[in-house]
Structure formats: structure tokens, C-alpha cells
Amino acid sequence: MADITREAQINDAFVLVAGTLIDSYDVVDLLSTLVETCTRLLDVQAGGILLADSIGNLELVASTSEEAETVEIMILAAGSGPCIESYTTGTVVSVPSIDDTAQRWPRFRQTALELGFRAAHATPLRLHGHVVGAMNLMSTETGPLSDRDAQLAQALADVATIGIVHERTFRQPGQIAAQLYLALDTRVLIEQAKGVLAQHLDGTMTQAFAALRDYARIMDVSLRATAEGILNRSIPIESIALPTS
């Protein structure tokens, strides 16, 4: 029965992620859905999606938490940690015990342990050998993902990558770069809009992002358009509500 339930959850996850791949899909919403789905299915406590900018630096685009601590550990992992290694090699990087990485990634190790994380798993976002970023999953328990869970994480990441790098634009680097730039630029606008909402609605950054995304989905507009509307005041802050749970 447990296996049947899990298989149903996995099927639902693919439907959920694939369901964002519509003509006017929002890349940030897609990646947020992906990382939230992975952390729930794989029983890890935090996750982040990072995309490469025009010079190959990884930038955080989506995270399971918008709070400073989680954002910090994802950024550290992108500068010197499992994410950057996964991105540069195009391979999965599994860290069963972060405590054992003192020589490899000292800053990442120290911060991760201080935040209570004990293991990490980084999966590349790739299509036909073209790597555009990485997904980082963090666990408060030591030990690797099972082979089955690692394959599931890669499969979900592959679906998301197809959404970023369409087959029809795969051989057109200019269009790929434009898509990636748009996603990174959208994240900057979202960061600013989150700050405005958190301050005016007296909520956390995570609540502010959830409210932003809920509004975008209800009104059937993109996260980018919603963030811009908050910043230029064309969307009244009073029309945005923090989540109740």
C-alpha cells in the first residue's frame, strides 16, 4: 500500500510540474514547483534551484524557503559547494555527510552544520549535455539519497530543464541565453516585491513569496507581471493576502 501511495504521489508530481509547461508558463513558478515537489517526495528539509548567468555564475532562482538562512546556504553551495561542482561537471554530486567536507568546502560546511543540515544532494539541470544550472537538496539527516530517489530527482530536474531549454531553441544559444536572463531578472523583481509585501503586510519573506504566487495564479498572470505590479503600484498591496497557514 505504501508503494502504491508513493507511486501515486510521483505521478501527481510529474503532472504538477508538467502542468506548468503551458505556452505562457513562468520559469520561476515552474522551478519553485519543482523544488517544493522534490523536497516533499524525497523527505529532505530544504532545496534550491540555481541557474547560470551569462558568465557561468550560479544565481538562486527558486527556493523552498525565502528566509535569509536558506538563501545563504544555497548561495554558498553555488560558490564553493555541491551545486557548483554539479554544474561544472554535469553530474550528480551526493554528500552523505557534510561534516566530512572540511577540506573540500570549509565555508559551506560550517554554515550548513550551523543551520542543522547534515547531507546534501546536487542534481544538474541538463539537456543533451547542455547544463544550465543545478538543484540543491539539503537534509537534516546524514546519508545519501537512495538510487530510486536520486533517479526521481534527476527525472524531475530533466522535465524542468525541457521547460527552460525548448527543443526548438536548443541549437540557438542566443534564445537560450535570453530565457535564462529573463528568469534571473524576474528573480530580482520578485526579491524586491517580496520585501515590499513583507514590510507592508507584516509577514515573513516566505509568506510574501507565497502571497505573490497565489495572486499570480488566481489572476492568471505571470510572477514577473505581479512583481512589477506591486513595485509600480498598479496592483494595490491591499489586494494581496498572506497565506493563512
Note the main attributes of this structure:
five-stranded antiparallel β-sheet; alpha+beta; 245 residues; globular
Any chance you could write out the topology, listing elements then pairs?
Elements: H1 2-18, H2 27-42, E1 46-52, E2 58-63, H3 68-80, H4 82-89, E3 93-95, H5 106-114, E4 119-127, E5 130-139, H6 147-164, H7 173-201, H8 205-219, H9 223-231
Antiparallel strand pairs: 1-2, 1-5, 3-4, 4-5
Question: What report would you give on this structure?
Answer:
The protein has about 240 residues and is an alpha+beta fold. It has 9 helices and 5 strands, in the order ααββααβαββαααα. The longest helix is centred in the C-terminal third of the chain and has 29 residues. It is globular.
Rg from alpha-carbon coordinates:
18 Å
Count of discrete alpha- or pi-helical segments spanning 4 or more residues:
9
User: Strand content of the residues, in percent?
Assistant: 5-15%
Strand order of the largest sheet: 2-1-5-4-3
Order of helices and strands: HHEEHHEHEEHHHH
* Tally of strands: 5
Low-confidence region ranges:
none
Helicity range: 40-55%
Structural class: alpha+beta
Profile the largest sheet: 5 strands, antiparallel
Q: How would you summarize what this structure contains?
A:
The protein is of the alpha+beta class. It has helices at residues 2-18, 27-42, 68-80, 82-89, 106-114, 147-164, 173-201, 205-219, 223-231, and strands at 46-52, 58-63, 93-95, 119-127, 130-139.
